Amino acid sequence: MDTTIIKRKRRKLTIGVAVLGLLIAAVFAAYSETDPRPDSTAALWAGIITLVLCPGSLLFVTWIDIDPHTKASAIMWLIIAVINFLLYGAIGAIVASFRWRVDEGPNAAGSEPLS
Q1: DSSP run (H or E) holding 44
Q2: Is 4 helix (H, G, I), strand (E, B) or coil?
Q3: How far apart are CA 112 and CA 110, in angstroms?
Q4: Mean pLDDT of successive 10-residue segments in the chain (115 residues)?
Q5: Model's pTM, two decimal places?
Q6: 70 with 35: CB under 8 angstroms?
Q7: CA 42, CA 95: separation in Å to the nearest integer?
């Protein structure tokens, strides 16, 4: 496979997975803005899933005084979304590097045959 095609596929996967991480953070931010009852089962599950899918939210676990619909809440979710974007992008880049490798062997394009 051509090197430019491999680079394009790697970049496409990396950006796609990074955007997925950003969208996951946006969904949980939107859910937190609905101000769910803290004792509901849905809020409990959303909190657990948020900790798993948005590792950046671990930075704000002890900040229980941030209320929804405030500037602090928006900044918190923006930071979580950026961390998610970068983390998911890094994971996508690692997966892409293993998925599409450039042949480095003796039969690779551009290498001289052994005599």
Answers
A1: helix 41-53
A2: helix
A3: 7
A4: 86 96 95 85 89 90 81 92 96 91 59 50
A5: 0.79
A6: no
A7: 32
